[in-house]
Amino acid sequence: MSSSKTTTDHATIKQWVEARNGHPATVKSTAEDGDPGLLRIEFPQGDSETLGAITWEDFFKTFEESNLAFLYQEETEGEISRFCKLISRD
């Protein structure tokens, strides 16, 4: 059985993502005039055609401005999980 957690703590999010070789990203087609657009987390073998890497600073700035939270799992069926989702804090 796996359970999901939710956090807004930047250090927790960054640690979880980097422990899984991921990095912050944006959907390229939604970025414009300095606004990174829709945020994503990209992992190896991800969709690098449609996603573009951004800095953690830009990621967390937009994360806060958009009032988002990070939903994630540590493990699933005893294996390290990469499941994560950006959700509204409301």
Structural class by SSE content: alpha+beta
The number of helices is: 2
Beta-strand percentage range: 25-35%
Helix content: 10-25%
- How would you sum up the major sheet? 3 strands, antiparallel
Radius of gyration: 13 Å
Query: What is the overall silhouette?
Result: globular
* Tally of separate domains: 1
Region (Disordered): 1-37
Protein name: 1,4-alpha-glucan branching enzyme
Written account of the structure:
The chain has 90 residues and is α+β, with helices and mostly antiparallel strands. It has one domain. It is 22% helix and 34% strand. It has two helices and eight strands, in the order βαβββαββββ. The chain has helices at residues 10-19, 56-65, and strands at residues 4-7, 23-27, 39-42, 51-53, 68-73, 75-76, 79-80, 84-88. A three-stranded antiparallel beta sheet has the order 1-5-8. Strands 3-2-4 form a three-stranded antiparallel beta sheet. It starts with a strand and ends with a strand.
Short account of what is shown:
Residues 1-37 are annotated as: Disordered. The chain is an alpha+beta fold and 90 residues long.
Name the descriptors.
90 residues, alpha+beta, 22% helix, three-stranded antiparallel sheet
Show the helix and strand layout.
Blueprint lengths: L3 E4 L2 H10 L3 E5 L11 E4 L8 E3 L2 H10 L2 E6 L1 E2 L2 E2 L3 E5 L2
Antiparallel strand pairs: 1-5, 2-3, 2-4, 5-8, 6-7
